[in-house]
Amino acid sequence: MTYERENIQRMAGYQPGEQPDDDRVLKLNTNENPWPPSPAAMAALQQIAEDALRRYPSPTAAAVRHQAARLHGVSTDQIVTTNGGDELLRLAMTTFVPPGAPIGIAEPSYSLYPVLAAIHDSPIEAAELDAQWSLPDDFAERMNAAGVPLTLIVNPHAPSGHLLPAARISQLAAALDGVLLVDEAYVDFAPADHDVVGLIARHDNLLVLRTLSKGYGLAGLRLGYGIGAPGLIAPIAEKTRDSYSVDAVADAVGAAALADQDHARSTWQAVCDARGRLTRALEARGFTVPESATNFCLATRPPDSPLSAAAIKDGLKARGILIRHFDTPRLADKIRISVGTPEQNDRLITALDEILAAAADQPAG
Amino acid sequence: MTYERENIQRMAGYQPGEQPDDDRVLKLNTNENPWPPSPAAMAALQQIAEDALRRYPSPTAAAVRHQAARLHGVSTDQIVTTNGGDELLRLAMTTFVPPGAPIGIAEPSYSLYPVLAAIHDSPIEAAELDAQWSLPDDFAERMNAAGVPLTLIVNPHAPSGHLLPAARISQLAAALDGVLLVDEAYVDFAPADHDVVGLIARHDNLLVLRTLSKGYGLAGLRLGYGIGAPGLIAPIAEKTRDSYSVDAVADAVGAAALADQDHARSTWQAVCDARGRLTRALEARGFTVPESATNFCLATRPPDSPLSAAAIKDGLKARGILIRHFDTPRLADKIRISVGTPEQNDRLITALDEILAAAADQPAG
């Protein structure tokens, strides 16, 4: 017999991007930073003492909480540390959404959102993005009409890379009856003058998610944090968050990484430069690539190519290069490519040229 | 205004034991192993490469999962890795308990259980332990009558240290209608012939919790795992567990620690030896100390002492030694002392002698 709850029986789990063991495989499928973390972070790792592992860690991950507060110019009671950004998504549901109440999202977006909602036993209230990957004007009204206590927006958007301006986020927070979680997993690759953290003083329902997985090259460490008004942060930090959810290593290494802004910013700039070159190279081959404020590009296959987007992905995989393809109506003709180093992007483009040329040589079928 | 769910508003958060920054403070309050982790684990930490941090970790923490399966003689689909044992407690509720359905526990036990149930919005169905800290004979019948889908038993028991034999666990699993989670956080300090893992083949509702926090001296790393029938493990491992909840460092360091059984066992033996000496020293001073199969002792204050248990705890704290006191009816006259190294235990006993002598010199008040 099964002991699972009914909603768990019905649902399917999240499918993470492929993580191959083979070091020769070029991974442009899970939006990692192609550049390594800060040397200061690696030094902090080397300095972890036996006693730091033997003892329970700081229950609040105090070192990271302090550094994050300093970085954003807020107080520590406006920060909650989490085991990756994903833990904050779950905690926002646990804290603000009675099971059964709907969770608001835009479609398409991060495929984990509906999975977490299914675990929570909440339906999804989804609004389709417009052709420019922007929210419909009546988004907040629709969420309010559905009685949504929590809306999740990824900005810059995944998988398109589109950036909503801070003014639109402010408008949304003001218009929504419930909590607005802005998932800024990719914000480090957006223009530097984009800033929504300043809005938390004005909107007591605005929760900003940050992660060190992308911008700081620390996906393996599992560290994220939330920024919001103290009244929004307190129930998460003091009640629903798992005790000791951030370990002692993440606390020490993460704090060192946050403190080394020079290193982080240099990788963000390098990613943005490489993204521009990759975009132009894809466009030169007939792909359509909307402007991206992230470390990935969503490329629509050339309209005159005999190859489907799925076939391009498979062709690249056969050449040892992983990218992502989502087999959903709006995304079926597109591929998502994480921006690599210039050398990695060159390898991708070379392989792509081979695949496109081979297809052009085939008689039309 | 508040955006919290009603059940979250009503509840209070978990209170972890004090974690002082001052290295001179002797921490005998949170049941850490007084001996350091395996040198092999420290070596694995030193060998973490930049790329292991830069990339997402193994979604299943495959290295730990493999080692744990090997250690217990089960297959990897009978193991789920978690961010500390605490994550498994939460996941068991998420996976097996519809919010609102009761969660079964014995009282007293680990103070996190009712907190997790409150977050889950489930009532607690509690049965009082008998005078020997054992379960009442009709425990399973009472849980079944209340319609409990998940029962949590900590064995060896906290905070008494009492061990239920495997035969009683088997009887319970057979009798319970729902899932039985046996929290074996302290089992490494129990007699070596005690084994309930062998029971999972017979009971498809038996979920065994293990942690590396105590036995392996790795509380700072946050690593635990569950052992159970594949049908019990699969929905947790593939659906409700947070994606990547165990980081790359914990996967590598934890696997190395599990592989070094010789080191771990030597610390378990040392703890058991020190526990015997500590028990006798406490008994010589008039404390009553039940036999403990854990790395702590629950000591009832001498009946003729003018000092309350709380006053003893405060007196020790004033001397830089932290122990735990629970101000609840059954535990108010007791102190819980984590077993330290022989030197640490000597320091505790010396301080205790000072406190008891000073109190004896005071006129009765």
UniProtKB/TrEMBL annotation, chains A, B:
PROSITE patterns: AA_TRANSFER_CLASS_2 (PS00599)
Domain Aminotransferase class I/classII large: 25-352
Catalytic activity: L-histidinol phosphate + 2-oxoglutarate = 3-(imidazol-4-yl)-2-oxopropyl phosphate + L-glutamate
InterPro entries (UniProt xref): Aminotrans_II_pyridoxalP_BS, Aminotransferase_I/II_large, HisP_aminotrans, PyrdxlP-dep_Trfase, PyrdxlP-dep_Trfase_major, PyrdxlP-dep_Trfase_small
Keyword vocabulary terms for this entry: Amino-acid biosynthesis, Aminotransferase, Histidine biosynthesis, Pyridoxal phosphate, Transferase
Region (Disordered) residue spans: 1-21
Signal peptide: none
Superkingdom: Bacteria
UniProt-listed Enzyme Commission number(s): 2.6.1.9
Residue numbers bearing the N6-(pyridoxal phosphate)lysine modification: 214
Pathway: Amino-acid biosynthesis; L-histidine biosynthesis; L-histidine from 5-phospho-alpha-D-ribose 1-diphosphate: step 7/9
Keyword set includes Amino-acid biosynthesis: yes
Known cofactor(s): pyridoxal 5'-phosphate
Gene Ontology molecular function, alphabetical: histidinol-phosphate transaminase activity
Assembly, per entry: Homodimer.
UniProt similarity note: Belongs to the class-II pyridoxal-phosphate-dependent aminotransferase family. Histidinol-phosphate aminotransferase subfamily.
Name of the protein this chain belongs to: Histidinol-phosphate aminotransferase
Taxonomic classification: Bacteria, Pseudomonadati, Pseudomonadota, Gammaproteobacteria, Chromatiales
Originating gene: hisC
